Predict the structure.
Amino acid sequence: MISKMNMKKVNIRLVFSSLALVSLLLTSCKEWDEHYDAGSAVEGSATATIWENITANGNLSQFAALVQKAGYDEMLKSTQTLTVWAPLNDTFDYEALMNESNENLRKEFVQNHIAHNNYPASGRVERSISMLNLKHLLFEGNGNYTMDGIAVAQPNVASLNGVLHTINGKLQFRSNILESLNNKDFPIDSISDFFHSYDVLRLNESKSTPGPVVDGQLTYLDSVFDDYNMLTTQHYAYIDREDSSYTMIVPTNEAWTKAKNYILKCYNYVNFRYIDKPSSETTNPTQEPVTLSPDPGFWRDSISHNKLLTGLFYNNNIYDNKKLVKWANGEHPQIDSLTTTWYDRIYTEDATKMLLETTPVLKSNGAMFITGDSLHLQPWIYWNPLINVEAEYSSNLASVAKGTERTERVTAENQNPLVPGSVSNQGYVTVSPNTNMSNVELNFYLRGARSTTYVLYGVFVPANITNRFIPQEDIKPNQVQVQIGMNRANGSLPANPTTLTRTDTIGYDEQGKPITKIVNLFTNDPSKVDTVCFGEITFPICYYGMAGSPYLRVLSRVPVGNTEFDRTVRIDRFFLLPKELDAYMKQHPDYKVHY
C-alpha cells in the first residue's frame, strides 16, 4: 500500500515530468521552426507535397513543366523523403531542355536536381549530396547557401515529403567517363561505338520484387534493371561509377584506326598444326589441328580490340597514378611510372610520351586524355611485346638430344667477379655432350609469338661464371646453328625448320659501299656473359593464347677433331625483340626494356 507521503512524492514527480515534457516539446518546436527558417521567409505549405509546393510557385513553372515531361511529378507527390533544388524561371535555357530527349532530360536535368533524404539549409552546411543520377554535388554555406556553386534563392520550403530549395540557375551535369564516350565534343565515336556495343541491362535482384517460382525459376512481380557494361569489369576500369576516380586515354577515330590496323597484323590467327615435342632425332606426330571456334576471324577481331583497350585505363587512387590528376589540371610533374588497371607498369619516357599531344578533359569521376591523330603507346608495351624464354625453365625446354641438361644457379655471392655481365633470373641451363664427339641439340618453345618480324638474341654463359680457377685457355666459345620451326601462312607445317642467317658488314669498297657476309654459324665471346644476335625471323601466323607454338632449335656445330670450340653449351635465355623495338633501342641506347 502507498502512503499519503509517498503519494505526494509520486504526484510531484508526475508534475515535474509533465512540465519537462511540455518544455521539451516547446523547445523541439522552436528548433524545428528555426531549422526551416534559416533567415528566409518560407513560402509553401508544410502539409503539401513537394510537387504541390512547386506547382503553387509561379516562379517554378518552367521547372514544373520539365519535371512533368520527364515523368517525375509522381515521385514528387509520393511518400518518399526527398530534397529538391529547383531553378527559378529564366535562369536556364528552358527551350533547349524542352527539346531534349526524355532520356537526357531525366538523367542530365531532373535527376540532377533531386536527392533522396532531407537536406535542410541550417547553420553551417558542407555536404556532398548524392543526387538521383548518382552525381555528387556540394551543398554548403552558413546563412547564405550554394548548391554546386549556384546560389540558393529561397531555402527550406517545408513540405509533407521533404524540403524544397529554389536556386538561381541550373545545376551543371558532369558526365562520367563512360557517359562521355560519344561523339558530341570530340571525334571519338570509333572507340565509343565499340565500347557501348557491350552495354546491357542487368536485373537488380535486390531492388526487384520477387514473385512466384515458375518451373523452378524465381519470377519477379516488379523487375528493376541496371545499366551494365562488361568491358568495365573485363578491364577492371569502373569508369561508370561516380565514387571512383580513373584516367582514360581516349584515341580519336584516326588514332583508333591506326592502332587497330597495326594490332590486326600482329594477331593473324589461322587453324594450324604443331609438334608437341620437337626434336631432329624423332618423328613426333603432330597434334590434332588447333581449330579456333567460332572461326579465326572472330579471335583476331576480339583479341585485337581487347589489346587495344588494355593500356588505356588507370586507377587514380594508385599512388603511381596520382600525378595523372595533376596533368589533367594543367600541371606537368615528372612521372616515374604509371600502373594500368591490369597492373602493367610503364615508365618515365613511355608514360610521358603517352600524354603528349593529348587534350585533358575533367569528368565527374576522373579525366579523359583525348589523343591527336596517333595513340602514342609504344606498341611493344602492350600489343606486340618481346618474347622472353628463360632457358633454365623446364617448361620452356622442349627436348634435348645427344646430351644431358642440368640447371645451374648464379648469385651475387658465387659469380666470378672477373666475368662481366649478369645472368637473368639467377639461372641458366648447361647441356653437356654424351660423348667427346657429340654435338648437342636443344629445342625450346616460343610461346606467344605474334605474326610479326622479330630479331632473335641468345645469351651465352662462359664456363667460368662461378669458377675463377678455370685456366683462361680452357674457356672456349660455342659455335651453333639456329633454326626456327614455324607454320606457313595457311597453318600447315613445312618438312624442315628455317635456318636463321645474319648479314654482317665486314668492310667497305672503294666507293664506300658496305661489303657484307652471310653468317649462318654463330659464336659467342667466352670472356663475358655474351648476347649474340641470330638475325630476323617473321612469323606468318599468331600463336598468342594458343596451346601450340613454334620452336627454336640450337645445334652445336663443332667439327670432328676441332679443339677451338666448346661442345658444352650454356644458355641463360633467348629473347625475340619486335623489329621496331630493336631499331628503337639502337637509336636510344639508354632505353630500358621491362619484361
Q: What stands out?
A: The longest helix spans residues 4-37. Residues 50-167 form a domain with the FAS1 domain fold (CATH 2.30.180.10).
